């Protein structure tokens, strides 16, 4: 009788995990929306500059590299003993209050600077679009930045579900335009890249190209800021079956990412020569801007800023969830150490005000150091996304069941290689 009940229970569990809900689709697209942002518009330049062989190797690594790392982080968030615990609370539970504060601080500083980058990027892109494409007089920068950020914050105000819903809606036009652009470039494909396809005598240069290009690949597909919110939401919805459901959603989301992005990357790279890609890198512009100048077509001149605006909007919203989580975690831990607490709604309002003021001030100021800030955030993201969950698998009893898998070694190696490459780039 007991075995019959167990079989029935297992059958129900399998049905719940295998069934697909509207919320699962929404989150799948939301994850895609956070990952596929402005970074993808620079990926063809960085990935294709070394020739065809490194590009093919990176295309093969793309899915396992991103899927296993984000699945590890998701499992880490789900390993908390209490439902509703976000990453900052789970870290404290597993590693203690001191380590919890340090990792929460790192988590915040890995994501918050990127949010500032996007606030500047959206202001610059819209300002350029108004001036060059619409031939209008752009409003004063301070006013334009305020209007744009208030607009984004209005979406934020409706809560997590509204953010994910908006991002999942923006995915469709973004993917459609990206794929149309990739198809439009097909008549311009050439064999120039195949001249750099030789492996003879190029072992060291191939290794160096892959080593330096790996972090670009990692962060072009990075959506760690939304993983904690995703895991919490799915745990509330599916309970004990959340891990299996999250893994399935992540797998489908990553397949969609890799197929669409790598098709776009290959189409761009086949349309240009390695010398063109080197020129684009030297000019420090996105692939869309370079293609618009290179082919000198009105369609590209209009499409480039529209795609960029949609990409930046999606990424801003996804990174906002992570930045808010980190900032809230810092305040909660600071108040807790003094025996105090704050109402969640009041805390979210305070965080929203802080984010609004700081992103607006930075967007108005328009500093030129933002690329460096994003690069400095890179090693922290690599530690949190690749190394921390793998360390937890060996140290935390709740995660011990995931030990022994080859994917753990693979994720650890990718994390270490990425960190070493970023440090080398900074020192160089």
UniProtKB/TrEMBL annotation:
Keywords: Amino-acid transport, Cell inner membrane, Cell membrane, Membrane, Symport, Transmembrane, Transmembrane helix, Transport. The keyword Nucleotide-binding does not apply. It comes from the Bacteria. One of its GO terms (cellular component) is plasma membrane. One of its GO terms (molecular function) is amino acid transmembrane transporter activity. It catalyses: L-serine(in) + H(+)(in) = L-serine(out) + H(+)(out). Pfam families: Trp_Tyr_perm. It is a multi-pass membrane protein. The chain crosses the membrane at residues 26-45, 51-69, 102-122, 142-158, 170-190, 210-233, 249-272, 299-317, 347-363, 369-393, 405-427. InterPro entries: Amino_acid_transport_2 (IPR018227), Hydroxy_aa_transpt (IPR004694). It is found in: Cell inner membrane. This is HAAAP family serine/threonine permease.
């Amino acid at each position: 009788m007991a075995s019959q009940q167990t079989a029935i229970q297992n059958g129900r569990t399998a049905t719940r995990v295998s069934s697909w809900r509207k919320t699962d689709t929404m989150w799948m697209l939301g994850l895609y929306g956070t990952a596929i942002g402005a970074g993808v518009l620079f990926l063809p330049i960085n990935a294709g500059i070394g020739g065809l062989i490194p590009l093919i190797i990176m295309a093969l690594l793309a899915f396992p590299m991103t899927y296993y790392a984000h699945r590890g982080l998701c499992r880490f968030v789900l390993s908390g003993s209490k439902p509703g615990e976000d990453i900052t609370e789970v870290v404290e539970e597993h590693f203690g209050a001191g380590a919890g504060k340090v990792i929460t601080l790192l988590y915040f500083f890995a994501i918050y600077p990127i949010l500032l980058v996007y606030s500047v990027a959206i202001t610059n892109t819209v300002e350029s679009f108004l001036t060059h494409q619409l031939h209008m007089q752009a409003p004063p920068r301070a006013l334009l930045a305020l209007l744009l950020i208030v607009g984004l914050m209005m979406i934020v105000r409706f809560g997590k579900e509204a953010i994910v819903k908006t991002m999942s809606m923006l995915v469709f036009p973004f993917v459609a335009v990206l794929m149309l652009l990739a198809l439009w470039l097909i008549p311009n494909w050439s064999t120039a890249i195949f001249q750099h396809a030789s492996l003879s005598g190029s072992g060291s240069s191939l290794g160096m190209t892959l080593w330096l290009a790996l972090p670009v690949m990692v962060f072009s597909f990075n959506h760690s800021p939304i993983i904690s919110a995703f895991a919490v939401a799915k745990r509330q919805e599916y309970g004990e079956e959340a891990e299996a459901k999250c893994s399935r959603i992540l797998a489908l989301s990553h397949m969609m990412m890799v197929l669409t992005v790598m098709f776009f990357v290959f189409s761009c790279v086949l349309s240009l020569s390695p010398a063109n890609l080197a020129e684009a890198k030297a000019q420090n512009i996105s692939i869309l801007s370079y293609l618009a100048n290179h082919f000198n077509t009105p369609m590209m001149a209009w499409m480039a800023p529209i795609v960029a605006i949609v990409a930046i909007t999606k990424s801003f919203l996804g990174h906002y969830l992570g930045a808010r989580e980190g900032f809230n975690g810092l305040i909660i831990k600071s108040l807790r150490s003094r025996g105090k607490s704050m109402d969640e709604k009041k805390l979210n309002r305070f965080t929203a005000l802080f984010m609004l003021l700081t992103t607006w001030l930075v967007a108005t100021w328009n500093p030129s150091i933002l690329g460096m800030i994003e690069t400095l955030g890179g090693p922290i993201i690599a530690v949190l996304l690749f190394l921390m969950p793998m360390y937890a698998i060996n140290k935390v009893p709740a995660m011990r069941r995931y030990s022994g898998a080859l994917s753990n070694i693979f994720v650890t190696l990718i994390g270490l290689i990425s960190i070493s490459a970023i440090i080398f780039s900074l020192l160089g």
